[in-house]
Write a structure and sequence with these properties.
The protein is α/β, with parallel strands linked by helices and 354 residues long. The protein has a domain of 225 residues: Rossmann fold, CATH 3.40.50. The protein is 35% helix and 15% strand. The protein has ten helices and 13 strands. Helix 4 runs parallel beside helix 5. The N terminus is likely disordered.
């Protein structure tokens, strides 16, 4: 597998990370990844939500590594365009179905990656019941598949399980500060339940599971109007429109380029670790700083426009990735500005209709 680092040496800014570079660890770390690499290429994987933003990149990486892939997606928020490169690929199969309904995959399966769920605030606000079902019924059905096949199961959870955190940065041992009936609860609680269900299947049925908590991920294939900060700011800057920053923009986010996120997912799958483990970039930026960086990288003169901040919008986001470094040998390597530039380039080549 590519991309996960094994103790690469380098420098990085801590604290608020204003340099925008990924932190690196100077200590050499051991990982099972190299030992697993030969076996990995012979495996067959199921990816729920494989036509989505992160899921489609995961499918591509698995195919590059020689893994046969069955992508299960109902295209609620995913897109055929995201998997267009897999057209004619004999090692890739698209199964159009809702994972909230029981499903099976004929033949052997070695890995089940469960990513299926609306993931942006706009999407889960429009699809609250579908979001809850993906996290509950969908997780159970994917776990049942892994149990029947004797496969390792990976749950793609989220930093949203930490809610609006009172501990900073957020380690995996933090239980979170979540509003169970707020406007984000359908997503937050679906993922928290999915983690509990995954843990129960491991304890009660012996299913080989791992939980990863993905922090803010960005990159090509994000939908221009999905409501998240990076695609919104890029779309506005390229169009010469005001960049709409919620509140005063002081709330922070930690942006991880999608290639790094996928490498973290694969490192977790290749390990024997049960998780949960944070996968994200420990460089912390204010939302206002993100808007200004994107505006500068786009060469745009767009003004900043401050708008009302959504209810329960987290004030802080920064992962503690010490466990990912020590247990998985993983850390992000893509500099924030470089990742944003690659993302802007992709958005700039989209048709005008977006």
């Amino acid at each position: 597998m590519r991309g996960a680092t094994t103790g690469e040496k380098g420098t990085g800014e801590k604290g608020t990370g204003e340099k925008g570079t990924a932190e690196t660890d100077t200590a050499e770390t051991d990982t099972e990844e190299a030992d697993m690499d030969g076996d990995w290429r012979a495996r067959r994987a199921v990816v729920t939500g494989g036509a989505g933003f992160v899921g489609s990149h995961l499918c591509d990486r698995l195919r590059e590594e020689g893994t046969e892939v069955v992508c299960v997606d109902n295209l609620l928020t995913g897109s055929i365009g995201n998997i267009a490169a897999r057209s004619g690929d004999a090692g890739f199969q698209l199964d159009l179905r809702d994972v909230s309904e029981p499903f099976d995959v004929p033949g052997p399966v070695d890995l089940v990656f469960h990513l299926a769920s609306p993931a942006s605030p706009h999407d889960y606000a429009r699809h609250p019941l579908e979001t809850l079902r993906a996290g509950s019924h969908g997780t159970a059905n994917a776990l049942d598949l892994a149990h029947r096949k004797g496969a390792r199961f990976l749950l793609a959870s989220t930093s949203e399980v930490y809610g609006d955190p009172l501990v900073h940065p957020q380690p995996e041992t933090y239980w979170g500060n979540v509003n169970p009936v707020g406007p984000r609860s359908q997503y937050d609680e679906a993922k928290r339940y999915a983690e509990a269900l995954t843990t129960a299947y491991r304890a009660a049925l012996g299913v080989d599971t791992v939980i990863v908590r993905l922090f803010n991920t960005y990159g090509p294939r994000m939908r221009p109007k999905d409501g998240r900060a990076v695609p919104t700011f890029i779309t506005q800057a390229l169009a010469g429109e005001p960049l709409t920053v919620a509140g005063d923009g002081s709330q922070t986010r930690s942006l991880c380029y999608v290639d790094d996120t996928v490498s973290g997912i694969l490192a977790a799958a290749a390990s024997g670790h049960p998780g949960p483990v944070n996968i994200g970039n420990p460089v912390e930026l204010s939302v206002l700083d993100v808007a200004r960086r994107i505006r500068a990288l786009c060469g745009s003169a767009s003004p900043i426009a401050f708008v009302d901040r959504p209810a329960d919008d987290p004030g802080l986001r920064r992962p503690d990735i010490g466990l990912a470094r020590s247990a998985l040998g993983w850390q992000p390597v893509v500099d924030v500005d470089k990742g944003l530039a690659m993302t802007i380039d992709w958005f700039s080549r989209l048709p005008a209709a977006g």
